[in-house]
Amino acid sequence: MIGLCTALERARWGVWDQQAVLLPYNYVQAVQAAGGLAVLLPPDPLLVEDPLDALELIDGVLLAGGADIDPSTYGQPADPQTLDTVLERDVFEIALTRAAIESDLPVLGICRGMQLINVALGGTLTQDLPEHLGHEQHRRVLGSFDGSDHDVELVAGSLAMRVIEATPHGTKSHHHQGVDRLGEGLLLSASSAMDGLAEAIELPDRSFVLGVQWHPEADAMSPVIGGLVQAAGAHAQARRIVS
């Protein structure tokens, strides 16, 4: 059972136009294709106080992509290019991530989710990569993965390499922010072949905590989400043995 954190956004459907919790369907499809049961987790102020109430019901957490993370969560003022932040979502996901890591529950962060793992562990972000890197190759077409393919180089012996099993690895990206200072205990396990940007991070003292800057849910051949589901299955089995 995989808990997928949702966005909190204004949305329109049918005759309705209102606040909604939502997630692109391909995240759910990828979890289901790997044999997992997808359960949506909207921001919840009560779970910020006690995330274990939710974590006891699931076997893994998937932190999805989405809006920029509010820079106040990592002690920085907002860059003019940091837009559409939703602090309610950020605070919820940070609390959930910290509790999941403490409980050794498998965690996968995708794009924004990778950045969220880094922030949850005390790291910081580069708020505008085009200004920092001098190009826009990590988000070439707004709202699309068209032309987004690029290679990442994986670190030998890393969790990322064990899951993906090949380097270089072709990926699809859509982001304008990235990891700057690594959070406590995190290791860099993949970097962009274009410019050396951090593309995967992981926490080696936990069974499965992995963040990837690219979008495996947009790639039917990617093994990344399947790796989370497999780790969650092992976690569920261990729970049953203990109980």
Account of the protein in words:
The chain is α/β, with parallel strands linked by helices. The chain has helices at 25-33, 45-49, 52-55, 87-102, 112-120, 129-133, 159-164, 224-242, and strands spanning 2-5, 7-13, 16-22, 38-41, 60-63, 107-110, 125-126, 149-154, 169-172, 178-179, 187-192, 198-202, 209-212. The two termini are 17 Å apart. 41% of the residues are buried.
List keywords for this structure.
243 residues; two-stranded antiparallel ribbon; 8 helices; alpha/beta; 30% helix; nine-stranded mixed β-sheet
Q: What is the element string, with H for helices and E for strands?
A: EEEHEHHEHEHEHEHEEEEEH
Q: Tell me about the biggest sheet?
A: 9 strands, mixed
- Fraction of residues in H or I helices: 25-40%
Please report which band the strand proportion falls in: under 5%, 5-15%, 15-25%, 25-35%, 35-45% or over 45%.
Answer: 15-25%
How does the helix and strand content classify structurally? alpha/beta
**Head-to-tail CA distance between termini:** 17 Å
Spatial order of strands in the largest sheet: 4-1-5-6-13-12-11-8-9
